[in-house]
Amino acid sequence: MTEPDRHAVDQELFELVRKAGFEGPAWKHLADRLVRHGLAVLGPWVRSGWIFGVAERRRMPLRPSAQERLLVETRFAEDFVHESVTRALERFRRDSLDGDGGDPALGGGLAGWFVAACVLAFVEQFRRCRRTGDLYRADTTITLVTEDGPDSMDVRACTQDVADTVVDRLAFRSRLAGLGDRDRALAWARATGLHDTEIAYLFDFPSAAAVQQRWAALISAHGRLAGLDGKDTDR
Question: Where are the transmembrane segments (predicted)?
Fold first, then answer.
């Protein structure tokens, strides 16, 4: 389906839902579609840390500390993703009922509007957690890592790591240390098994071929990334 065709379908569905007052089966179908798309995009963005660059480019800079970034990417990723998508859906319905919602006729389509709403919800949630100190409340510690390996620092959090994954997680994070935002996102995506077409869509690469080229360059420049995607690499 081409982009114009997709926008036409969005417009038809939106009008159907609007006439039904954003209730009933049509609304349920649209809400399910939006939530699935929001989770598919925001999940990788939050878990890879790419979300902070997205917010910066949309003029909502957060500038997290190393501790805050790691807490969001690991301990609180699921909380941030689900809370942000939920709040975005609530805002979509409320604004649409008020006539200020994500009308696909405004451009970008429903999916684009909803992702933007998810990013805004994430920014608001992060700022709220930073202001209230919720990121640092609990009785456990996290470990920050560098290219040289783990460096323990006490940071408060409210969920526990699964013990048998801690060593692997630290080793993985140490491999990402020192990379730029896009390269971190690429390494994370490769390690989690995303396809190159998905990586290109999520992290603003022009094509799957560009993803492959950049990954090859990263492997060449940073030997510690070799095998991160589960593939043997001759060096």
Answer: 105-123
